[in-house]
Specification:
- This protein is α/β, with parallel strands linked by helices.
- The protein is globular, with a radius of gyration of 18 Å.
- The protein contains 8 helices and 14 strands.
- The chain has one domain: Metallo-beta-lactamase, Chain A.
- Helix 2 packs across helix 4 and helix 6 packs antiparallel against helix 8.
- It has a 7-stranded mixed sheet with strand order 2-1-10-11-12-13-14.
Length: 300
């Protein structure tokens, strides 16, 4: 079994020790209202508004979509505490909090906050959710200064394009190949820089009875920038961009979710029959690579 970093959370600190964890099989007791994927798709449109309230739904097993119509947030529940990935905008944080409560879970059960990439539409709500839950926020080394300051990094391809956001307290770091573990939950961080320097994708397993699937929350990864940034002027960054995409494409990936639902056609996939697709990550990466290559060609 994989050796991993286990987080024992107290009110004072995050203590790291070596331990092990397996597939989550939490029974989801106490869940009140779970909407269907079709109900979400009927309420929300493609590329919908970032702060538009959306009904929460079970992705699979103990993994739930608790975000808005336009911005994803994922709750993974466990007996020892829950993990929340991404916090939306400041206004979106209220939607996320309401969705978690509507599922029958207390915000105080959320013990760990994680992120995808460090832009305000995905992390501006983390400070509020941290205050409501008391959870520990763990970040990549490159994202941590941005989360602490509430200001996009000057090195970000989209520098000066985003408004400041409320600073959050970063309680610890995540590193490649070191899973974030609490109880029976284990989430593997995959550094995927490109959209931002500190971007992370996440992989974990969720189970329903004896059936377990591998879920991947793949970062946005689109090569978007301000008018002055040229990816071709940063060859080392482009190399790390491609390396992250290669790792993401090779992952075991039964269900793909992305920070902007429509970036992976989540709504149309649900209406067409479901989210399971073992080729989802590869298809997603191939589409990003085409855009990156076109962007680099356009810069010549």
């Amino acid at each position: 079994m994989r050796r991993s970093i286990t987080l024992y959370l107290t009110s004072l600190s995050v203590v790291l020790i070596v331990g092990t964890a397996g597939c989550a099989s939490y029974k989801n007791k106490g869940v009140d209202t779970v909407y269907s994927k079709v109900q979400w798709a009927e309420r929300c449109a493609d590329w919908d508004e970032w702060d538009k309230p959306a009904p929460p739904f079970r992705i699979f097993g103990n993994s739930y979509y608790v975000g808005t119509c336009g911005i994803t947030a994922i709750l993974i529940t466990g007996e020892s505490g829950h993990v929340l990935i991404d916090g939306g905008t400041e206004a979106g944080a209220d939607v996320i909090a309401a969705n978690i409560r509507s599922l029958g879970f207390s915000l105080r059960q959320v013990k760990i906050l994680l992120h995808s990439h460090e832009h305000f539409d995905h992390v501006a709500g983390l400070a509020k959710l941290q205050q409501l839950s008391g959870a520990k926020l763990l970040a990549s080394v490159d994202a941590a200064p941005v989360l602490r300051a509430g200001i996009t990094s000057a090195e970000d391809p989209q520098a000066d394009m985003h408004d400041p956001f409320p600073p959050a307290i970063v309680d610890g770091y995540v590193h490649e190949a070191d899973p974030v573990v609490i109880g029976e939950l284990a989430l593997m961080p995959i550094p995927t820089p490109g959209h931002t320097h500190g971007a992370l994708s996440w992989q974990w397993k969720s189970c329903e009875k004896d059936r377990c699937l591998t879920l991947v929350y793949a970062d946005s990864l689109s090569p978007i920038s301000n008018d002055h940034y040229r990816f071709g002027d940063h060859p080392a960054y482009v190399d790390s961009y491609r390396a992250g995409l290669q790792k993401l494409s090779a992952l075991s990936c039964d269900i793909l979710i992305t920070p902007h639902p429509s970036a992976s056609q989540m709504r149309s996939r649900m209406l067409a029959g479901g989210l399971e697709d073992r080729s989802g990550c590869k298809i997603y990466v191939d589409s990003v690579l085409r855009r990156l290559n076109q962007r680099l060609a356009d810069e010549l």
